[in-house]
Amino acid sequence: QVQLVESGGGSVQAGDSLRLSCAASGRTFTSYAMGWFRQAPGKGRDLVAAISRSGGNEYYADSVKGRFTISRDNAKNTVYLQMNSLKPEDTAVYFCVADTFWGYGSYWYPGYWGQGTPVTVSS
Question: How far apart are the C-alpha atoms of 34 and 22, rounded to whole Å?
Answer without folding.
Answer: 9
